[in-house]
């Protein structure tokens, strides 16, 4: 269930992420952006594994018996009852997965901000049309 004033809390996370000076694994990356956004929307932390490097992140994936970031996202969604929704029905605050051959983890997670999804990549903050994404979860 979304908390009161979730939209304004999400906006704070979005602005903080946009204004951070650099990408840092475990502090300012695609996963932390999505985890912080989910927490702003629902009031609960859905993933609390700490990592500082890409190698650490890959070790967490392996330790959780997952094959990649999408696999972990699917497990977290199931554990938290986040339902898969049609991509075109994704709304502000929903999480989307984008497959990318240039990503270190074969893809990335982002937050729907309307017709676009915001992703926090190493190179920059990117906005991708939601219809280019592979899967969407309703965050409630």
Distance between the termini: 4 Å
Structural class: alpha+beta
Q: Note poorly predicted spans.
A: none
How much strand?
15-25%
- Please estimate the helix content: 25-40%
State Rg. Answer: 14 Å
Main β-sheet description: 6 strands, antiparallel
Number of strands: 6
| Element order: H for helix, E for strand | HHHHEEEEEE
What's the number of helices?
4
The backbone outline, from C-alpha atoms, is: globular
Strand order of the largest sheet: 1-6-2-3-4-5
Average pLDDT confidence is 93
Fold topology:
Elements: H1 6-19, H2 30-42, H3 54-63, H4 69-79, E1 84-85, E2 95-99, E3 107-112, E4 116-120, E5 125-129, E6 135-137
Antiparallel strand pairs: 1-6, 2-3, 2-6, 3-4, 4-5
How would you describe this protein?
With 140 residues, the chain is of the alpha+beta class. The chain is 34% helix and 19% strand. The protein contains four helices and six strands; from the N terminus they run ααααββββββ. A six-stranded antiparallel β-sheet has the order 1-6-2-3-4-5. β2 (95-99) and β3 (107-112) form a beta hairpin. α1 packs antiparallel against α2. The radius of gyration is 14 Å and the shape is globular.
Which key features would you list for this structure?
4 helices; 140 residues
Summarize the model shown.
The protein has about 140 residues and is of the alpha+beta class. It has four helices and six strands.
